[in-house]
Amino acid sequence: ILILAISVLGLKALLHPGLFTAHDIWHQVARLYHYQQAVSEGAFPPYWISTLAGGLGYPLFVFSYHLPWLLALPILKVGFGIPATIKILFFLSYTLSGLAMYTLSLRLFKSKWAGVISSVLYLWAPYRFLTILVSAQIGVAFVYTFVPILFLGISLATEEKRKRLAIGLTAAGVSGIVLSHFSSVIAVIPATVIFALAILLEAKDKKAFLLSSLKGILLGVGLSSFYLLPAFYYSRLGVLGFGNYYQRHFVNLSQLIYSKWGYGPITNNAKDGELSFQVGIAQWISVALSSFLIILLKIKKPKKYIPLSLILAFAVSIFMMLDWSLPAWKLITKIIEVDFPFRFMLPAVFTSSLLAGFLISNVKRIYKPVLLILFVLVALYTNRNHTKVNLYTNISVKDYVDAEFTTSSMNEYLPPWVDTSFFKRQLISPLEPEGIPVKDVERNTQKLSFEAVFPKEMTVSVNHFAYPGIALYVDGSKVEYSRDKSGRVSFSAPRGTHFVTVKFEDTLPIKAAKAISLISLAVFLILPFLRPR
Hints:
Distance between the termini: 38 Å
Strand order of the largest sheet: 4-5-11-7-8
Number of helices: 20
Shape: elongated
């Protein structure tokens, strides 16, 4: 009840009718619209959206996250509109993250006081409000929900009686993070590894712990395979990507301690001050007092491992957001594309909030309510101006969708063979040359079809990008095609009247990935019913 009340207080701005101005809010409305449309047209889950990029098609959901939109489908089904559904998703992710953090802190520090204080600090951190009310990063919002679940699964892997629960929670955490926002995985890995090492040092049966954790991770990867495997497989074909974009998004240490609240997007450099990158005053106090407690008080060695791991993970997260970490980022970008180093704000907020639970669990009982009240007051007071949106809006869903070319600010998922200068042209006909008579044009998220009269046998281009999975049918028969200099489908059209269809079909890698996810889901669902040996 307390966590629910704190959640409503934090996101009361969402109770206002309509949506609000935020960096990614236009993207989110358009993505949910296209996801719903694609599912209604038979694609589950969808990968390619033919109506994006001016009708030339775009592999949006090959690379972009799925989980928020999968959760949105039943909400839309019962009658909520897209704007209301997006606000429900934000509130759901926020509240569930508080409950997950409460459960984790209670488990680690054996104290309800610890659960409450960790949950409040986790919910009332500046970056939580920036994520939802300033940036509208719905994928990142759900990562906050699944990080405590992952850590809870790892912590339970030391107990033989709870092995199945540990595997299930670890799998849910891994798959939830991957399917919510894959770019955040890089930020979560260091803190997870450091925490797991601390649990390993405490574990009596280290082999059993490692096996349970590994099973959970593999099951989580299996659950998310329908997205993860195609994304990796097709990224090797090349995408426009982010390049060295990350180098402009390091922050100063002073910004992490305090920076002025703002609503504007980053125009040039994260250090310019358009956005606030505060970890949180209450969170910094939590880290400082916990460090002081460990150093000065004689806490038995095994009990130090977890708080020490959290302090180390916090320090690593802070370091990775600063210029000093540039050599590490240069190594990372040789393996995978990255966008913002300040993704590490997430583990910084998580570990500092969890340390507050350690702190309150190690003070005398008489001081616990005093410490809780002080932390809650500091968190609420220092974030009192962060719970507001910049401006409420009443824009139609159609306007949101029509304004989004690819729903990606940099069109970063376009394959490298696409000639982006082609976008400057206004496409009148689905065919080029444009003088060919065309009628009965039908376009949806999965296909483009039309009837054309070819005056002679000729090479033509369909105004639709070529991509793995894009199939060409002429009069119902599948035919081979090539790729023209703009990256479009090109083929030799026979003379006469013909019905042409270009549509996306699941490729062999996608079919295999879906099969792995289905098998993993079956294992995940029967896991609670398996008899322990």
